[in-house]
Amino acid sequence: MWAKRNVLSGLTSIGEYGEENDQERCFTCGKVIGNKWEAYLGLLQAEYTEGDALDALGLKRYCCRRMLLGHVDLIEKLLNYAPLEK
């Protein structure tokens, strides 16, 4: 059984043996970036620009930078809607 969820949105990946694996990686270079999402949001709330926040997190490659810049946190958007009542 393999269940994988997006770590960038705050969920974890559960591996075949049930262990947690929160190592969401850049699609291009393979660098671990899943642990940087919460820090990135915190820096944005602290009035950093997107570029400065990514620099502070040590993301220099444009492939890794686009992983955070292009991420849409769908879980948070979907939680705003109430389920249909039957």
Automatic annotation (TrEMBL):
Major place of residence: nucleus
Which Gene3D superfamilies does this entry report, sorted A to Z?
Answer: Homeodomain-like (1.10.10.60)
**Where in the cell is the protein located?**
Nucleus
Single GO molecular-function term? DNA-directed RNA polymerase activity
The answer on whether this UniProt entry bears the keyword Metal-binding reads: yes
Origin: domain of life: Eukaryota
In terms of InterPro entries, this protein maps to: RNA_pol_su_RPB10, RPABC5/Rpb10
Q: What is one GO cellular-component annotation here? A: RNA polymerase I complex
- Per UniProt, which keywords does this protein have? DNA-directed RNA polymerase, Metal-binding, Transcription, Zinc
What are the GO BP annotations of this UniProt entry?
Answer: transcription by RNA polymerase I; transcription by RNA polymerase II; tRNA transcription by RNA polymerase III
Entry's Pfam families? RNA_pol_N
Q: Which family does it belong to?
A: Belongs to the archaeal Rpo10/eukaryotic RPB10 RNA polymerase subunit family.
The subunit structure is:
Component of the RNA polymerase I (Pol I), RNA polymerase II (Pol II) and RNA polymerase III (Pol III) complexes consisting of at least 13, 12 and 17 subunits, respectively.
Q: What is this protein called?
A: DNA-directed RNA polymerases I, II, and III subunit RPABC5
Species: Darwinula stevensoni
